[in-house]
Automatic annotation (TrEMBL):
<dbReference type="InterPro" id="IPR000390">
    <property type="entry name" value="Small_drug/metabolite_transptr"/>
</dbReference>
<keyword id="KW-0813">Transport</keyword>
<keyword id="KW-0812">Transmembrane</keyword>
<comment type="similarity">
    <text>Belongs to the drug/metabolite transporter (DMT) superfamily. Small multidrug resistance (SMR) (TC 2.A.7.1) family.</text>
</comment>
<protein>
    <submittedName>
        <fullName>Multidrug efflux SMR transporter</fullName>
    </submittedName>
</protein>
<feature type="transmembrane region" description="Helical">
    <location>
        <begin position="90"/>
        <end position="109"/>
    </location>
</feature>
<keyword id="KW-0472">Membrane</keyword>
<keyword id="KW-1003">Cell membrane</keyword>
<dbReference type="InterPro" id="IPR045324">
    <property type="entry name" value="Small_multidrug_res"/>
</dbReference>
<dbReference type="Pfam" id="PF00893">
    <property type="entry name" value="Multi_Drug_Res"/>
</dbReference>
<feature type="transmembrane region" description="Helical">
    <location>
        <begin position="65"/>
        <end position="84"/>
    </location>
</feature>
<dbReference type="InterPro" id="IPR037185">
    <property type="entry name" value="EmrE-like"/>
</dbReference>
<feature type="transmembrane region" description="Helical">
    <location>
        <begin position="33"/>
        <end position="53"/>
    </location>
</feature>
<keyword id="KW-1133">Transmembrane helix</keyword>
Amino acid sequence: MRPTPSAWLLTGAVVTEVVGTLALRVSDGFTRWLPTAVTLVGYGVSLWLFSLLLDRGGVALGTAYATLTGVGLAAATLASVLLFRDPLTAVQLLGMGVLAAGVLVLQTGGPAERT
């Protein structure tokens, strides 16, 4: 099964948002120009890709946004553990599991009927 264009747009939005967030971590309060530029470009591209996704109309806003933030949060958390040696507790892992379950339910719940 091939990924749809919407899946590629959402994946791109998540990846660029996470890159921007990781760069924000090392920008030292926007005092370092390169990480600051990567942060701004990452967030800008993420929003642009997300807007294209919404414009295509194939994904509901709530589902798309929950996926963007949930997957982005989990990816940024795992990357910060690997790159910056940030701690990760069992409770935080449980929270990430709950997030993943929520995103899965939103993705597989099917379209809501309009009344």
